Amino acid sequence: MTDAELARRIRTRAYLEGDFVLRSGRRSSFYLDKYRLETEPELLGALGERIASRAASAGPDAPDLLAGPELGAVALAAAASLAGGLPFLIVRKEAKAYGTERRIEGVHEAGQRVCLVEDVVTTGGAAVAAVKALRDAGLECRTAVCVVDREEGGADALARHAVRLHPLFRVSEIAAA
Prior knowledge:
Elements: H1 3-14, E1 15-21, E2 27-32, H2 34-38, H3 41-56, E3 65-69, H4 74-84, E4 88-91, E5 104-105, E6 113-121, H5 125-136, E7 140-149, H6 154-159, E8 164-170, H7 171-176
Parallel strand pairs: 3-4, 3-6, 6-7, 7-8
Antiparallel strand pairs: 1-2, 4-5
Helix pairs in contact: 3-4
């Protein structure tokens, strides 16, 4: 599947028009429904391949691990892990209150480089929170890959935390597809 075909498939399957409230609290006339992407095997596979490739091409910041925040990016991180052969971590919204009481799930060691995997980045708030959690666990996170950058400040928010965002697509490209 070419990038143009993938962009069209994302638009057809997951680009919804209407009146929506985003996680940031902002209102929007469109919404990218990540679950409509992540539950379609062909799309999930194509996205996993591209995420793995983009993460591997990060030069000196190439990761040892991938990390997907729950719930939205876990399927993407798993698909990228399978495509690229890197283990992945799950970043919980908060530490669980039972068992191991961990916020970061999966095998990791302090100092390992991690690429954050995200679905849709808007203001970057959730991504920044995940980066902080990874760093609190002793991991290095300087790169993030997302499926779609909504172009509403998320890349800048991550840059302020020394993380470079590598979007597969920008929302303007999806809207034009």
